[in-house]
Amino acid sequence: MIQRDSHIVLTGATGFLGCYLLRLLLHKGYTNITCTHRSTSRFILIEDIKDQVTWVQCDLTDELEVESLLQNKVDAIIHAAAKVSLSNKNQKSLMRSNVDSTRLLADYALDRGVQKFVFVSSVASIGPGLQQELIHEETEWKDDADNTAYGVSKQYAEREVMRAVAEGLEAVIINPSMIIGAGEWNSSTVSIIQMVDKGLPYYPSGSIGLIDVRDVAELIVLALENEGLSGKRFIASAENWTHQKIIESISKTLGKNAPQKQLPAVVARLGIIAATISEWVKGDKSILNAQSIKMSQESLEYDHAKSIRLFDFNYRSIDQSIKDIVEVFNHCKEASLEFGLLDIED
């Protein structure tokens, strides 16, 4: 049973999701938290709470450093750190960062008698499912050329967790869909607000599951605190929206004109070719790379029934989340701030 004074090791605390998760743990009264960081980590999102926890610089793919991290008694590990990229050019580094780190942490958790292991995965690790069907936790994964390198890395990381479960580790896996929220405005999915604010000529044809970053943090803490979940995975996704609806909602809230035209298939194909060349020649790390353009044309909709059943959870409405995010964005824009955060208590 995890208590408020239990020793929790949290990876990824300096990132977008991690900063909300750390704030929530502190808000709930957890007093013994050790967070990992890399030599290149930025603390901009958690500068105000940084001194309330212990920090350890750790390469999570280095066995000696992971062994040192877990040398003292640890009650729970929340593994939220991950390399996120939709560029298939990064396949090797994704496998190393996401699979090797998970294997090492799970192995040492087993060896050191850690009570609880919570692994933050992604819906990308679940099979795409059939057309017109919601994707759920039991949707079959298929090794396919269309899988993203990120999705493959998360699928194999999950296999490491489930192997450890078979060997006696109590672990649970959470699979968030596209996470929206406030953070660094030029980073990851947060940048969509800035992109819409600057204006988009088209909207993509596909659809995707969305979830507020605060809901993901709350579900992770529920997974940490609840018993009897070992070996379970659950999708964390509030609503399924078309990309057109997402862009129209953000545009309206920003007071901007939404694009009226759908991205033509031929333009999408040319964009994929151009982005692929850019990635390989220039190492382009833009959110608009070949894989993201391709995915934006697909219908990826998720069933969240299991998460509601397990935790009796009420998701925030995406409409309200967008209003909250835009409010923070407008304040930051006026004040020339490069980041902003949502209130975890709202």
Q: What is the overall number of helices? A: 11
Mean pLDDT, as a whole number? 89
How much of the sequence lies in strands comes to 5-15%
- Indicate the overall shape: globular
Order the strands across the largest sheet as they lie in space: 3-2-1-4-5-6-10
- What is the CATH top level name of the domain at 8-189 and 208-242 and 301-317? Alpha Beta
Q: At the fourth CATH level, what is the homologous superfamily of the domain at 8-189 and 208-242 and 301-317?
A: NAD(P)-binding Rossmann-like Domain
| Annotated CATH topology of the domain at 8-189 and 208-242 and 301-317 | Rossmann fold
Q: What's the SSE pattern?
A: EHEEHEHEHEEHEEHEEHEHHHH
CATH architecture of the domain at 8-189 and 208-242 and 301-317: 3-Layer(aba) Sandwich
Question: Distance N terminus to C terminus?
Answer: 28 Å
Question: Main sheet, how many strands, which sense, barrel?
Answer: 7 strands, parallel
What is the SS-derived class? alpha/beta
Q: Which blocks of ≥5 consecutive residues have pLDDT under 50?
A: 266-286
Helix content: 40-55%
| Gyration radius over CA | 20 Å
How many β-strand runs?
A: 12
